[in-house]
Amino acid sequence: MGRVTPHPYRPSWARTVAGVGSVRILVGATVIGETPRVAIAEGEVALLISTSALPTARPERRRCAAFLVSESGRTHTLPPGRFLMVVAFPAAALEGVGLPRGARLPVDGASALFWPFFAFAWTVAMETAPQTGLSMYFTERLLQEMLTGVIVASIRVQDGLPGHQPYVAAMSMITAQAGDPMLTPSSIAEELNLSLRTLQRHFSAQNTTIEARIRSVRVEQAVRLLEDRVYDSLSVERIAQACGFSNGSSLARAFASEGRLSPTVVRESSRYRTVAVGERERRQPGSSSLAATAG
């Protein structure tokens, strides 16, 4: 059984800090006389949210300010507000979305997904009941997909940002919906109100194809699941289906097309590395096991 786990870093304003796979959520309230700040780790991006009311409040009472920060490895100040939330996740999850490097992007709190996402993330952070590896996976996936949708909607309404470009807009859809087996070049073109041929030309200008980018994003998602010990209970077949493939064989073919080892080898190699690192740490001078031997 898995669990929404506490995270070791806790700023003074955060009452709850939880980890869900690769996503960490900090929830709290403003401390009088203190400016709320949060440190974003290398390789992370984070959504900073400040609100006047809890997510369960009536719509007319909801006021919020939200920003996405992509400059990692430094401390960021949260907007003023009574209730605070930070959702940090791997920058790789937004690959292809078109987020400007180092940006502090205002997030559209009026978008259809924002408050449902905020309420769901708040509930997840407060959850204490154990989860299976499968439920943990779907919770992490839903958080990332909802968050990607919120961010994509915000990018598209910002003047001067590349969200209106067909290639970037299509990559936003692929990143957010790669796990959907119904995602196809035709469905993407239809969603963007473009002809399939026009969209194909935009991808050709980037020296790639729509099918290749869908496959690549799906393979990257599968690799992350195969290498994460949290999801050891998921079979290769189940991971394949969760990432938009019909079965384990189609996943293996996609891995081969991307120049990767087989899914089974990727998982076994990751487990071996984890065991090897643990063994090295155990044998470090001064460890308890060596100290006991010396005694």
UniProtKB/TrEMBL annotation:
Domain HTH araC/xylS-type intervals: 168-269
Signal peptide start and end residues: none
Alphabetical list of Pfam families matching this protein: HTH_18
Positions with biased composition (Polar residues): 285-295
Keywords carried by this UniProt record: DNA-binding, Transcription, Transcription regulation
Molecular-function annotations in GO: DNA-binding transcription factor activity; sequence-specific DNA binding
Disordered: region residues: 276-295
Name under which the protein is recorded: Helix-turn-helix domain-containing protein
Source organism of the structure: Microbacterium enclense
Organism placement in taxonomy: Bacteria, Bacillati, Actinomycetota, Actinomycetes, Micrococcales
